[in-house]
Amino acid sequence: MPDDNRRIVLLNTLVSRSTTRAKAHAPPTIPALDLFRLLERRRTKRVAIEFYRADDDVDDAERIVLGRGHDFIRLRHLRIEEDGAEFCDVILLIEFVDWSRRSFPVVDTNTYDGREIEGEESERGGTTAHVVARLPKEGRLDLGSYRCAIEVVHPISRADIQYLLCRQLRRHSKAEEWAFPVTVVDRKSGRETTKEYRYTPLLEFMSDVGRRLNVATEERELSLMVFTKRHERHSTAQPSAIVHEDFLADVEYRVGANQAPADPEEKKSWLEGIKSDFELRGFKTRLFYKHPNGAVISGEVHQAVAGAADLLMCPREHISLARLPKTWVSTINSEVVTKMRALLDRDELWEHSQ
User: Fold this and answer.
1) What is the mean pLDDT of the chain?
2) With contact defined as beta carbons under 8 Å apart, do 144 and 16 qualify?
3) What percentage of the chain reaches a pLDDT higher than 90?
4) Which of the pair, 118 or 224, is modelled with greater confidence?
5) Which residues have C-beta within 8 Å of that of residue 76, sequence separation ≥ 6?
6) Is the residue at 185 inside a domain?
7) Are 71 and 78 within 8 A, CB to CB?
8) Domain of 346, in residue numbers
9) What pLDDT, on the 0 to 100 scale, is given for residue 214?
10) Are residues 72 and 141 in the same domain?
11) What is the pLDDT of residues 41-50, one digit of tens each?
């Protein structure tokens, strides 16, 4: 099959977590399946859209009016399909619209004459990309970390997709005033009181950058360290107990890099110490980051740099299609999705660094 019919797919980990200003208390983590259902409700209301460099407003209708004339990204389609007894796949079609692009040039290959084909007054250039995430079904064990495949279509990057998902979730949680109760003890009276703290759910992409710590600390901001050990032996009781039984299980520890000291040298020593301790005990190391440098680059260069960084730093695979892939589709492409779901089935792709 010709190479032109191939599409690059990024392999990522999608993580569900929550943030709050209550630093001493952990907010609840919402299963990704519930968050995607929330996003689908916003999509059906035609408000699952985010504008770049436009004035914002808490009212969605007013926000959309203010966004006219600006580039935007939106959730065009969302579908949930079962995948066996344990899992389901969430399929997203993400659409980016470049407000400055209304026409494109064509050249006659016989006469070499050229012209521009121009759209209607309200039509602008669009691009779409598929995202497929594998989630546990409702009621199954959910650890908040999911396999995810992202179709590479310029100029849509992982950062753009995450921006859309997180901003939409933030708008909903803020409008609904999501909060969680915390019991605190008054220092003077000793009485217990219950306080409500606001929180915001997030859906974030992380990419496995391998086992070398210096890759993540020299130029990029490390986000997460994952330590895994296969067939770890555990006991159901102490050796002196009457009933004692050993069992084997896969063990995984997740250490957030945000716990590290602020000083760069101390941070590096802290990270190296944790990594060495786990590896001496037989654990395999995987390092994750969210986006290159953890910074926002302004201007037209941003999308090109983000897209290039995705290709260089993310594990990736190719899928071969029957026809030349398009940069924009009106509905979810079943062939693309089938090939992407097949990648989620291949366990060896998700254990390559272990």
Assistant:
1) 84
2) yes
3) 55
4) 118
5) 43, 93, 94, 95, 128
6) yes
7) no
8) 3-206+295-350
9) 53
10) yes
11) 999 999 999 9
> Rounded CA gap, 154 and 151, in Å?
10
User: In the Cβ-directed half-sphere of 348, how many Cα atoms lie within 13 Å?
Assistant: 1
Residues 234, 154, single domain; the answer is no
What would the 3-class secondary structure string for 5-17 be? HEEEEEEEEEEEE
Q: What is the number of structural domains in the chain?
A: 2
Burial of 183 (0-12, 13-18, 19+ CB in 10 A): exposed
H or E, element range at 280:
helix 264-280
pTM: 0.78
- Do the Cβ atoms of 285 and 224 come closer than 8 Å? no
Q: Give the three-state DSSP class for 30.
A: coil
* 7 token code pair: 């599409």
Residue 115 sits in the same domain as residue 32: yes
pLDDT in tens, 265-316: 888 788 888 888 887 787 777 777 665 544 433 344 456 777 877 887 788 9
Task: Say what the pLDDT of residue 39 is.
Answer: 98
Domain membership flag for residue 211: no
**Amino acid at the residue 142:** D
| Phi, psi (rounded to 5 degrees) for 86 | -100, -35
Q: Of 267, 289, 311, which residue is a domain's last?
A: 289
The residue from 239, 266, 289 where one domain ends is 289
